[in-house]
Amino acid sequence: MTNAITRLFNITYPLVQAGMVWTSGWKLASAVSNAGGLGMIGSGSMYPNVLREHIIKCKAATNKPFAVNIPLMYPDIEKHIEIIIQEGVKIVFTSAGNPSSYTSILKEKGITVAHVVSSSKFALKAESSGCDAVVAEGFEAGGHNGREETTTMVLVPAVVEAVKIPVIAAGGIATGRQMLSAMVLGANGVQIGTRFAATEEASCHRGFKQMIVDSREGDTLLSLKKLVPVRLLKNNFFIKVREAELRGASESELTEILGRARAKKGMFEGDLDEGELEIGQVSALVKDVRPAASVVEEIMREFAVALENPLFDTPKTII
Amino acid sequence: MTNAITRLFNITYPLVQAGMVWTSGWKLASAVSNAGGLGMIGSGSMYPNVLREHIIKCKAATNKPFAVNIPLMYPDIEKHIEIIIQEGVKIVFTSAGNPSSYTSILKEKGITVAHVVSSSKFALKAESSGCDAVVAEGFEAGGHNGREETTTMVLVPAVVEAVKIPVIAAGGIATGRQMLSAMVLGANGVQIGTRFAATEEASCHRGFKQMIVDSREGDTLLSLKKLVPVRLLKNNFFIKVREAELRGASESELTEILGRARAKKGMFEGDLDEGELEIGQVSALVKDVRPAASVVEEIMREFAVALENPLFDTPKTII
């Protein structure tokens, strides 16, 4: 299939693998790109030299387009941008910050830029900053999230109505039916994180992958709203945060509880009790760890079936 | 169209108007039923004699099926059940409580019973209690809500997978595209509240209807989580609740701030500053107050168009 998103990124399917800290390195990104989606290196947990290494390895592992995700609040962002330009990366997804700062610099170098937003207000800002597309990411998504808590079902139509550039839906999407559901809302493609964290190529810890598989509805909650809201998988660390929040703990107390390098501890080193585990609500629907290519294939097979028969129990064209 | 839900309720469209306190009396319910959906009287804000009056008037105003919604935590529930049986109501939607208590009593009288749930665990409970259908209501919905905060995009597939009885999706649905989107996830129909609150026949205050029309993304937030979580439209009362919650206010303090009859004050009497205003996130997409029949017609027209062309920008059958 071709549409605004497949053409923009020159990919086979309008399916983007989200950049995820400690999870999406060159192995996952190249596997997804080779399978016809858009793979993405998540630079938020990488030192500049590590990012460069991942880009070089990704270029060697695929001749298909891939992207790099840059959280705009990353402290070493200037170096990341420099490396991305030096290494000839063609697609960048920015997130968690103001797109007006870096979009024009990237665009001048011929880089295609998409920006992740949690509201149509931010989507309009991204559009006027020159972004080529926006990712409309709902409340149910993993990791850092917006303060307005607008869900994918409401956010996607709002963003589609607000902007003229293509819209990629994110948050709560792990299956082909969910992909079609999001595109029915007007999105031109989807960005999927959680489902790809539970793949063999994901660089997060094996124990974390198993926790994703084992997790059920209600096992994640948007937390740390007084700092930057982040959707956490429930564990001992979560319980500590929760207790503090319920008694009205201050920003500084929460910052202290969070401490440093806790995401690495949890997602990369596999301390499943005391680490910070970021994942989306849809982890409840993820049932196995498998190769990324097989995830892409299954989603697109299910998407095709759903497109042929959008309603489960009803023959079409009966209205 | 016919499917499991149109057959179950003997209605034209698989579109249910949600029971809403101070908002859905006989006028709204009969208007929606006459337009081919399933109208519903919301009994949660009615004294027993008021409920009886609404049922009698609804029967006079339509010969189509309509339903009554009963929150199972309502103090006078026994009387409500008695009236429903006496007046020959054929369809009941229960919510906010344990379905095992009353489902069999209603079923014995030949009443069709649906129960509103916020998780697949509760959906299984409803199924095993003998309910004929479940409403899977996501986090984005207005009014009282589940503690797990699972959104429509994630909840609906989870519930569809868990139960064999038909599933009605609710939360974040106000347009025909959103209706199709929810049904692509496996729902057999949808329940729509917010959009019907902004109709001429809704019994809520005109000023509240205008606030729904004027509201934008981020103008509602799930609140009072230490009591029963409820999605509130932001106003002075909301700000007081919010301040208290951020400093960790106790249950009893929040109960005191809430006080008594605050929903009536806001939604019915039109005290838009100090009243409790319950509405869904999708109010951001509602742009006018109009007759309920025209809402049903527009949604079903948009649904039909969307079904013919599920993807906005892409011709079908291209995979």
Briefly characterize the structure:
Chain A is 41% helix and 15% strand. With 319 residues, chain A is an alpha/beta fold.
How would you describe what is shown here?
The structure is a homodimer of 319-residue chains. With 319 residues, chain A is of the alpha/beta class. Chain A has two domains: 4-202 and 292-307, TIM Barrel (Alpha-Beta Barrel), CATH 3.20.20; 206-281, no CATH class. Chain A has helices at 4-9, 26-34, 48-61, 77-86, 103-108, 120-128, 152-162, 176-184, 194-197, 206-214, 236-246, 251-258, 262-268, 292-308, and strands at 15-17, 39-42, 66-71, 91-95, 112-117, 133-137, 143-144, 167-170, 189-192, 220-223, 230-233. In chain A, the strands form two sheets. An eight-stranded parallel β-sheet of chain A has the order 1-9-8-6-5-4-3-2. In chain A, strand 5, helix 6 (120-128) and strand 6 (133-137) form a beta-alpha-beta unit. Chain A is globular. Chains A and B meet through helix 7, helix 8 and helix 14 of A and helix 7, helix 8 and helix 14 of B.
